Amino acid sequence: MSLDGIEIGWIGTGNMGSPMSRCLVGAGASVTVFDPNADNMTASVEAGARAGSSGQDAASGAEFVFSMIPDDDVLRAVALGDAGVLAVMPAGSVYVDMSTVSPEVSVEVAAVADAAGIAFVRAPVSGSTILAAAGNLTILASGPDAAYQRCEPLFAAMAAIQFHVGADEQARYMKLVLNLLAASTVAALAEALSFGRKGGLDWNVMLDVIDESVVASPLVKYSLPPLKARDFSPAFSTDLMIKDMGLICEAAAGVGVPTEISDAVRRLYLATAAGGQGADNLTAAIRQLERQVGLGEPE
Predict the structure, then answer these.
(1) Does the predicted TM-score (pTM) go above 0.90?
(2) How sure is the predictor about 128, in pLDDT bands with cuts at 50, 70 and 90?
(3) Which residues of the chain are in CATH 1.10.1040.10 domains?
(4) Is 175 a catalytic residue?
């Protein structure tokens, strides 16, 4: 579906935001982007977006404003206050935040948006930068049904799959549920692989068997080729997972759910970052455990 004639403001053109904004440009939308790092806007501008001078400049006159930003503090700065996008968006427009942030800050933004007559859609994503560039992400959205329906054609330009999971903060919890499962899977994989190597198993043989076993989830299958090559370049960094595990532990405590597993997983990633691998892929937790038990590189 063509998005010709739709005016969109986009805040945050980092590793994920840049390819996602380019998907909207490619679908015909008129997109104005803003990022505090001007270099981050280059690829979007080269694809046909206009470079905004501020978040408010990108948001002014837009029917839809999207943000893809790092954390709670940045969301507050982007959305709220006299310099925030909600201060310049007209009643009847739609603000879509696609970041992984806490339900707590999301409630704050929703209250301000509601008071201004602006529909707020929470739409965090699941997927890698490769999937973002191909427009094949999964979008987990919550917010008013009518606003979600208005967003569906825009989401279709960025995602292969989209879910509307509720009217309020459900998308925030859904994203954290998925990230907890991803973090725990990689942590268990790290322990299992270290255990196997200590028991005399060959690294590549272990990975081959896992790849053909009942535990070979899509995440595990995606991780195995770079693990065979011992490639820990970041698709999703350890530092980002530490941030998300903090959100998970806080949100779980807030709704009265015990976090024994989450706490243990978080400690592993904190140790991985302390060992100098915070910028590496979250699978660097495997190297961290290998060091702890005295294992070097596989032969």
Answers:
(1) yes
(2) confident
(3) 173-292
(4) yes
